[in-house]
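RECORD TYPE: inverse folding
INPUT: structure tokens
STRUCTURE:
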């Protein structure tokens, strides 16, 4: 899948975070999807799902830029990219979500 990951740095707060649109909401069985997303959010301290404008996205927890070192930052982003691809596939294949086509 072709996913866009947006990395956000806020100098006024000195925090770094990332977000990725994974897919569009399905046309059917949406309650089952919401139940899954809420259950996953309860298990994931460093990331969370949210729904906005008909799309499902996964965002990281904000990290102080001082704690974002080259080695740890690389590992965090690598893991996050893997989560984005894995969850995109799960949402599309198991929960009837539609591949994201956000025109970017």
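DESIGNED SEQUENCE:
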């Amino acid at each position: 899948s072709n996913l866009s990951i947006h990395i956000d740095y806020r100098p006024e707060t000195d925090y770094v975070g990332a977000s990725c649109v994974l897919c569009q909401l399905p046309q059917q069985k949406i309650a089952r999807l919401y139940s899954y997303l809420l259950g996953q959010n309860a298990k994931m301290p460093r990331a969370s799902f949210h729904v906005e404008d008909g799309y499902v996205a996964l965002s990281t927890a904000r990290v102080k830029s001082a704690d974002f070192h080259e080695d740890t930052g690389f590992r965090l982003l690598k893991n996050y990219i893997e989560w984005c691809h894995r969850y995109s596939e799960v949402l599309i294949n198991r929960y009837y979500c539609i591949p994201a086509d956000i025109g970017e």
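NOTES: The longest strand covers residues 15-24.
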